[in-house]
Every structure is written in C-alpha cells, then in structure tokens.
Amino acid sequence: MAAAYATPPRPGPGGYMQTPAAQRIAAPSFGQTPGPAQRTTDLSSVGGSQVSGATQPSLRQPENLTAAERSARAINNALVEVTHSNSLDDEYRTRYASDYDMNTNTVWAPFQKLRSHNIPDQIFEQLNRSEASTNMGLFAEIHYAWVTVDNALYMWDYTLNNPELLGFEDQPYSIEMVKLAKPKKGVFLDSIKHMIVLATVDQIMLLGLGEDANTPDAGLTLFQTGMSASVRSLGVRHITSSAKTGRVFVGCASDNDVRELKYQAQDSWFSTRCSVVNHTKKVYDSFTTSLAVFRAGSTEHIIDLDVDDSRNILFTLSNKSTIKAFLMNGESLDFKTEMTFQNIRHNVDPAVQGPIFDRARLVSISAMSAQETSSWVLLATTNRGYRIYFSGSFDYPPRPGQPGPLLGITASHVRTPPLLAANPGEEAPQYVSQPNNYLNAVTTAKRFPPGYFFASVARTQNADQERLFISVPDTQADDSYVRPQQGSAESATWVDLHSQVMDIGFTVPYKGATPQPQGFGYEMAVQFDEPIPEIAVLTNTGVHVLQRRRFVDSLSSLIRQGGGQEGFQNEIQKLIIKYGRQEVLTNALAVACGQSIETSSSRTLRINDPEVLEAARKVYIEQGGRPSIDQNAAASTQAPIDAVKPSPRFEATIRYVSRLVRSTWQQVIQKEERSAAGYQIISAVKAEKLRAVQESLTSLQKFFNVNKSFIRGLSGPDDLSRQSSKDDEIGLQGEHRAFHSLVKFVTEMIEALSFVLVLFEEKMVEIVPLLPERSRTIFMTMTFQTLVATRDGMEVAKDLVKAIVNRNIAKGSNVETIAEALRRKCGNFCSSDDVIIFKAQEQLKRASEAKANAEYSRNLLNESLKLFEQVAHSLPQDYLQAAITEYIELQFFAGTIQLALKVAYENDKTNDALAWMNDGRNDNDSRREKFEKRNTCYDLIHGVLEAIDTALASNPPFVDGRPSLSAVRRDEAYDVISRSKDEVFLTNLYNWYLSKGWYDRLLATDSTFIVTFLQRKATEDITHADLLWRFYGQNSQFHEAAKVQLDLAQSAFPLTLDKRLEYLSRARANASAFITANNTTSRKTKQRLLTEINSLIDVANIQSEILQRLRDDDRLRENRERVLSELDGPIQSISDLFNRYADAANYYDVCLYIYAIADHRDASVIKNTWSQFLDATHNRAVQELNAAGNQADVASAYELVAEQFREVGSRLKDSEAVFPIPVLIEMLENYNIRRIQAGAGADAAQQDDNGMPHWIPDIFIELETPYELLYDTLETIYFSSAQPNTRPAERRVILADLLYVVERWLQVSYTRAGQTLFGGEQGQMRIEELLVLLTEQQNARQIGEECWQTARRLRARVGEMVA
C-alpha cells in the first residue's frame, strides 16, 4: 500500500509572534497640539528570539468503518489479489521447459474420469449397414455426439440412457465432414441457436439446429435451410467457424487454400444465399484445382484450422507442417504471416532442435485467446508430443483495450514431453537434448483454456487402442515455489481408454477468474463459484467424460486416503510450502464447510464424512497462524488496532468468502427485459445461483457458531488474559474486530440474498415506480456490494420493503402476513419493528377510511399511535412525516405532537443534543447530528400548531356556551406541550414563536423553562431581552426585571445612551417597587441593586451631559464622529469620562460632579477645580457681553457666575468634600471684591443698587446652608488679618454680607415658631457681642456709615426680641 501523505505539521510553541495587548483608545483632541507619536514596539523581539515549531509527523485518524464496510473492503482486496496471480505469460517465460509432476496417485491427478456413455445400439446397427464411409465426432457444447453413415447423419444426446436419434438423410452424397457452428445474427430465426455445417463429396450445406416453437418440449430439431454450395472435387476435410461473427472456413484435401462458406438470409444482386469463396487463390488459377486430387501425395493441403476470435485471427496447418495466419477483417480474409517447419527449427532453442525435428511433424494447432495471454497466440503439437508455443508481434491497436493486428509469429517456447522412459525397461532421457519417446505416437492433440492439454497416444503394441495424456499448468503455485529458470512444473497424468480416440471437446468450459491474462487461469478462485470444467472424449466405444479435479476435492481425498496423523501433517506442510498457508487454509475451510464433492458414474455427492470434516477443521484452526502488527503503520496512526495485520486464518476466511460471492458481489441486482410478454424487471442473477451462494454462506455461518470457542478472534475476551505482551493483546483485538466484522457480514449477506429472492417474487415493474426518485435511480444500478455494504443500499432496501407493503395495502392484502413473511426471510431488511410500523400504517389507513364514524376512527388513531410509539426508536423520518401528515388531516393534534416528541426522545435518550447546546454548539461536535435529528421531529410540530390555528379560525371557540370540538382539540394539543420537559423541544418551539413574531403567545406560555429560554435569547438580541423583563414584569417579579434592565443598560448591544438611561430609569422603578409576600427578594438585596442602579444613572447622566456639550462644542473637530459615537453608546467608566473628556475639555463643573460621584476627597484638587470653574465662567460671561456689544456692563458678569454657581451648588450641596462651604464663601468673596474693584474704580462700600449687593450669602441661603456655618465663615473672614481683608474698603464688603446673614438669621428665627434665636444662647451671645462691637462710636467711621447704621438697627431689634 502506498504511504499516505503526511499532513503539514502545526508550528510548535513559540512558532507565532506574541499577540499584542488591547490598545487604549486615545482621548479626543479639543484643538490642542498633538503630543509625540507613540513609539512602536517591535513585537518580534519581545521575549527573546523566536523558537520555530518542531516538525511532528501527522497521525492518521482511526478508521471509522462499519462491520459491513470493513469486510467489504477485505473482500474487494481479495478479489483484486486474483488479478495479481501468475499467468501463462509467466509460465512460458523460458525458451523451453520439461518439468512435470506425474501423478501416479489419483488424489492429485488433474482430471478424473467422471462417467462413460456407451454408443447406442441403433448407431451400431447403422454402422453395420455402411457401404462407403463412416465418421464420428462431438458437438460437445450441446452434449451431443454424431456419426455419419454414407449419406446419413445421426446425432444423439449422449448424457441420456436411452437417447432418441436425430437424423438427416435427405441428400444422396457421401458425407465427408460435419461441424457445429454459431450462425450469423439475423440469418435464421431466433429459435435456431446453432447450425450444422455438413460437407459431402458434392456440396456443402447448412442445417438449422434449435427448438421447434410448436413442440418446445420435444428438444432439439433439425431444420432444412435450403442453403448449399458446390464443393465437388475439393475433398472437404476440416471445418472451423467464428463464434463471434458466424463465419465458416473450410480446409480441403485438394490444396492448401482457405475457403469460406458465405451465407446470407436473402439473395442479392451479386451473390447467392450460399456460396464458397476461395480467399487465398486467384481466379485464373482455379482451373488447376480439379486436377490436384489426381496428383501423387505431393499436394500440400490443410490438416487443421483454428480461430482466435479475441484477435480476429484464423490459423491453418498444412500436412507439410506449415502454419499460416490470416486476419479476419470484416468480410475479408487477409494473409498475415507464414511459418514453415524449417523456420520453426531456427526459432527454437538449439538444445531441443534435434529431438523436436527428428522424424517429426506437426499434427494439430490450438489458438490461444487474448483473455488467456497477452504474449502467446498459438500452440502447435508434434507427433512426438513436443508442444511449441508461438508468440505474436502486433501493430498498434485500433482502439484502446483491443489487440492490434497481427504482424508475425515466432516459436518462442517449447514444452518437451516428460523426461521418462516410454516403456518399462527403457532408459529415460536425462536431458532435453536427448531423444524422447515418451509421447512417440500422438494422433490427436487439443488444448483448452486455461491450458488443459490433451493428447491421444497410440500404443505401440496395439494401434487400435490409445492412451490419453493430460497435462495442466500449475499457475496457482506460490511464487516462492516456482523455479525461476524453468517455470512451474505441469501436473500430468495418463488415462487409459482402451479404445481409439475420435474427438475431444469442452462440454463444460472453463470460465476465467478475470477477463485478462493476470488471473484468468487462477482456477482456485472459481472452484466454488463456477461449474467444474468437463471434457468429453469420443472413442469408438463411447463417450468418456473427464472432470477437472479441484484442489478442494484433492484435499478431501488426501484426508480420506489416510496415512496416519504424522503422514497427513507432512502432506499439509508440503502443500503449505507449494501453495502458501492462506490457500491451504482456504481449502481446508471449504472442506470443513462441505464444499468438496465425490463423483461417481451416476451422481455427484458432497462429502459430509465427519472424519474428513474434523480433519479439515483441525488444519484450519491449528495451522491458522497469529496476527501481527505493522510497526510502520502503527507509527503513523492514532489507533494501534488499525495497524494489526490479521492472521493467515482470517485472510484465508476472507479469501473463501470472496470466492463464494465472486460472481454476484459486483453484479447488478436487476436487469430490464423486453419481450413479447412486455417490459419486465427481473433478477440479473438466477435464483438457483443465489440459493447456492446462500447455502454456502449458511454453512460457513454454522461453522463459525460451532467452532467460535476454538478460533482465536472469535473465542471472546478470555484469550486476552493469555497474551504475553501488549502487542499480542492489540493483535488479538485486531483479529477479533476483523472476525467479528466478517461474521456479521456473512449474516447480512445471507439476509441480503434472501431479500433479493423474495424481492423478485413480486412484480418489480409495479414496485419500482413506487420508490422515491433517488432510491429508484440507485436501485437500477445497485450491486450486491451496494446493497450489503453501503448506507444507500440499506435505504433502498427499506424503500423497497415499504413499496411492497404499500402495494399490498392498496390491494387490500393482509399486511401483517406479508410483513411477517419478510421478517422471517430477511430480518435485517424487514425487522420486527418494521412489522409494527406496517401494522400502524394499516390502522392509520383504516382510520382515514372511517371518517364518518368519529369514535371508531379516533380509536384506530389511538391504536396506531401506540404502535408507532412502540417503534419510535427506529421509526424512519419519512414514515414519521407521512404519519404526521395523515394525523393532521384527521385533526389528531395531540397524538401528532406526542408521537413527534416520542421519536425525538428515542433518537437521543442520553440527551446529548441538550449537552451540545449548553456546551457552545460546536459544529464539529458529533452530538450536533443528534440535535439536528431531534429538531427535524420538532419542526413537524409547527405544522400541527398552524393547523390548529386554521381549524379555530374556521370554527367558533364556543357553541351554546360550551367549548367547540376545535377548541377542545387545541387545549389537548397545548396540554401535551405544557407538560413537556424537553428543553430542546421547547427551545425549538419558542424560537419558532419568535420567528413568527408571536411575542404575546410566548409571554403567555405557562412553562418553567420560558425563563431559561429568554435568558439565553437575551444575550442574542435586544428584542428578546425586552421580552425577558416584560415577562418578569407581568409576573410581578420586579426585582428580576430590574436586574435584566440593568444588564441591558450595560450590555454590548448597539443602544444609544438615551435608551440605556431609559432602561436604567425602568430598572430603578422596578427595583423600588413594593416587595410582596410572595417575593423572596430580601430588602438588603433590593437596596444593593437600587444603589447600583442609581450609581450607574449618575454616571450615565454625566456621560449624557458631556455628550450634549461636545455636540455644541466647536473645539471638537478631529475624530468628531467617532468621539460622539463612543459617548452615545455603552456607559463608560467614571475615570474615562474624567480623563478623556471632562478634564480634557475643561468642563470644570462636570469634573466637580465626577468628584462627587467618585467620592473624591482631595481638597486641593477640588479647590483648584472650583477656582478654575469661577474663572472660566467669568471669562465666558465677559466674552458673551463683549460679543453682544455691552462693554459697559462687563462688571455685571458676576450674575452669570452667580447663576452657574447656584446651579452647580444645587447638585453638589450634599457632598461636604466636593462642596466645601467655607472655602467657597471665601473664594466668592474674593471674586466679588475683585469684581467691584474692577468696576469704574468705585469704593468697595458703594455697590450698585441695581445689582445684587448680597448675592453671595443669598446663594448659600438658597442652597440651605446653615446660618451658623455662614455666620462663622464670614465672621472668620472678616476678623482674619489675611489678604484681602486687611484694607478697610474690602472689609466693609465682607461686613455687609455678614450683617446681611445676621439680619436674615434673625428674621428666620423670629418667623419660625418654636425656634431659638440664633440657634441658642451661645449663638445669641456671639451676635450680641458683634453688634455691640460694631455700634461703638469709634468704629463708625471704620466700618462705614451704612454698616454702622445697620448694626445699630439689628442690635435694637435683637434687644427687643430678647426682652
């Protein structure tokens, strides 16, 4: 076997470059100068130098063959081996050969005398009346012998005890020669299969031979054809014909010319119906013909002719030992070459020239066909028994595969007679160059395929009695046994006939094992499959039938011969050396299975002698050898068992089986026949042949069953414990697998033969049209191999069984009887399950016919459902689909769904389909096939549900207040669905709902699996995810709905930011919903979820605000669309929002929001951000005023600052860290002072009455800042010596805000009942002290008149309130 090409190895570790990490997306650019480009790292240098992957040879995958496929492969290999056996080209490869195995023991004689048939007494009576001449011969191919008595021809069937003579006496001339020939097509009636060429001294005529259509039981009949031609003075001595073309050639005693008997159905313009044409002599030479017969014996004439139809060659032999060859080209005959006896002498090896040509002549020739040999074309035999083989040289063939025209012949090989003494007392020759008289008086010699040589040799002491020398080439010997210099020895023997040989013919011809030279002569390959070749020898006393002795018969005879155990074993070892162990074991198995026969004169019997069978069984078992492991194959496969080479015993068994099925294995099962009876489809192999093969296989099956405990590989696992090594265990496992496959194959082949026999008992013309189109196409070309060893064959067989049953159902036949008969005869093609299926179909058909009786029909439907459920594990898909279609038509909805679910379950009891779904749905996983099978069943349920909807649409759901029949059937069907726990089915069903857009039906489903399904689908599509939280919502599972919505807000689905905020808002609402008594969610869990949602909402709001600002921000120009798309999508982390967007874009208020959300507590960073926020806001206000042309009102930019501060503060007031009130008050006061100082140079105390004199404390009061904190902060600032409050004008601004806070605090304390003045006595005392200090006269000028008057007024009011 040629080595398989290795798969290119995969790179090992280090063979690929390292995969770079995901790169961080660059922040958007807001008009800044881009930084330096990032440095690119050379990945090839990371981690050191690369390590190239080590090259590993790929391992062949384990074989995944069925038992039938494995055995079929072995049988095909065995059949191919036949074509590699020795051929005649190998046999005659030397210049000469002289080796013979002269078999004195009849056990190994190549032929044995089968029977003898005496010449009928009526013939002797006719012979006694002879006046002129008599002659005798054989029509061997039709088992007839003939005799001519003067002008009469008589013939009879020599196989009959009392044959009836068939005669022809309707002509007056003495008969010289008779020959049986095949007629040309179209000349005679089809009933005439043969014609007799009858030559007399005056004319040659044709007689038809066939059956009379009026009396077909009468046997053969002679017919007058009216065709004859003159041959007067020619002396016809030899006639031959071409079986392929029907041409007839004649050799005469008058000359050496070749004549042809031309015949045709009708006369034509230039030729009559019958004429004789001379192909080798010109017309003007023909007048000498009449004188030739009167010349002395010097005239050269033809003594033998033979035709090679395979090469279209006619050979002739003259009385002067000259051979001529002619090419039969159409209707012509072209001379090609001539070989005289002298030329032959020069061609042969000098070592044999003397013995061959010493007092020798050629007595016969025999053509050798191209099917037998590609090199040799002719055998010529001398009168001293030397056989000369001629090789041919050919021109280029006209068509591929056909032999080319012959150019010449050469004597290239000589087979001498045996180097033995001819008579007792004589000295045998030692060398081929010495004279050899062993076959000194050969009178007749013939050769038959594949090399049978028969020569009649006259006895020297009695010329009327001849002996028959038979020699056969032993091409079956093992190659190691053949001697390379001389070829193999021929097997020869003598047969004493004690009479004179008149004719020799093939009665049962040999059929080659192959149509080509290699293997054609391999007789062992056909010894169990083809008829045994038989030769008929006609003598003057009767017809003797000789039969080829098969190797299997010789082996059984050897066993019966005895000789003791030791002697028998020695003989077996000799046979093993000569023919090989496998061949001997093959034949031993055949003997043990009853294949050997014993012949007698009256009958042929199989040998069933127990002693013979037992001895053969021991040879098969004890000489079987052991399996071995092909170490080279083991190194290239993942399964060591695939490298096991089975034992010679197994190979012999395969060889035996291949020989049993050889002629049927690759034969087409059927053939089409057109006749007067019409078109028919019949079996291509005769039933008798099929039964014979089946019988032989049955015997082998019985042998296995009886002897399995003795055969290694069939004896079971007990043999494993006796193995000494791991290799022995693997070898035994391989042997067991091989034998197990073979035993199973034999069983299947037996059933296949039974199936074919049963099949053609039916009218196939009516059955074939019922097959599906694909099965019909396969069936018309299907072989037995296809039927047994392929899935297509099994499917076609099932379709055939179904067609047979359906045909009988249609005719009203009893299905159970038919199906049971099929099951008994061929259970592999019609099992017990099939019988139940057919019963179910019958019940279903009856239910369909009983529609008028609803109750009866429903009972039949239920019965059919029970039967279908019994065989759900083996119910084919087409049967299921047909049954469901019928059920839907009968509105048996619940039963339909139940059947589909049952079949799906039986197809996958281990629930591998669900495991495949849960494991990621890998397309290369073998479990996918089970998933698809189950889905095919579930898809059928879709049609049921649609049919239910259609039925409800045409019928009201209620009638007289009660559910209608359609509604009841709908409820029954959906009840079956709701009770199903099959997750694969429910997944299929819900997916179908989604494909139909039936979302409400899906949400209304009452199944615990719906949640699992929607959870899986939620990861695939946003619509399906919406269905999940909707389902939770309508079932009051608000917490779960909130979790789904939260997940959606954070999902990778292509959602806008607004949509994500919407999901978060819904999630917050659901998470805040009231917890019912049935809800098991704890408050802690609920609060945790709500916190997470709120946090994410805060982040999303910030992202939304950044998005809106960036949309309006003209600074964003580079990658604008990408940046906006990123923000209008998944919610980003707070860090990314700060670093990449808010901080980069100088959105300081947003940065402050982020600080609050992130709980950032770095006071310096926060203070700096607030400062930047105030500066940025002020600058923006100034720019806007300038842009509006209000340069005079630039000082009023504080209004925008106040507004922005108030807005930001309202969002941050709850964060003490991000909204540090003391820091912010001081920051604003400083800003206010700078603003006042910048406006027209006015005094700090003189503020614009139209402005907001106390806008800073107002902001904080609006933000609900405690008065105590405001007072403390402003008081601290006022009395602090730090800048800017060291100057009196600046301090007055702060003091004014401080007094404003005191006044507002006083007002609030006064208006709110029950509230203590200034928060308590301590606060009251502090304020009183401040007012007293401020109202002193010496301070009036320092704090300003307005502040001093305000302080006095507040002091007075406080005093009043305290009093």
Automatic annotation (TrEMBL):
GO BP terms, alphabetized: mRNA transport; nuclear pore complex assembly; protein import into nucleus; protein localization to nuclear inner membrane; RNA export from nucleus; transcription-dependent tethering of RNA polymerase II gene DNA at nuclear periphery
Domain Nucleoporin Nup133/Nup155-like C-terminal span(s) in chain numbering: 647-1310
One of the Pfam families matching this protein, by short name: Nucleoporin_N
Keyword Ion transport attributed: no
Residue numbers spanned by region Disordered: 1-63
GO cellular component: nuclear membrane; nuclear pore inner ring
Topology versus the membrane: Peripheral membrane protein
Ranges for domain Nucleoporin Nup133/Nup155-like N-terminal: 110-544
Major subcellular site: nucleus
Superkingdom field: Eukaryota
Keywords from the UniProt entry: Membrane, mRNA transport, Nuclear pore complex, Nucleus, Protein transport, Translocation, Transport
Composition skew (Polar residues), residue ranges: 38-63
GO molecular function: structural constituent of nuclear pore
Subcellular location: Nucleus membrane; Nucleus, Nuclear pore complex
UniProt similarity note: Belongs to the non-repetitive/WGA-negative nucleoporin family.
Protein name as it appears in the record: Non-repetitive nucleoporin
Lineage start: Eukaryota, Fungi, Dikarya, Ascomycota, Pezizomycotina
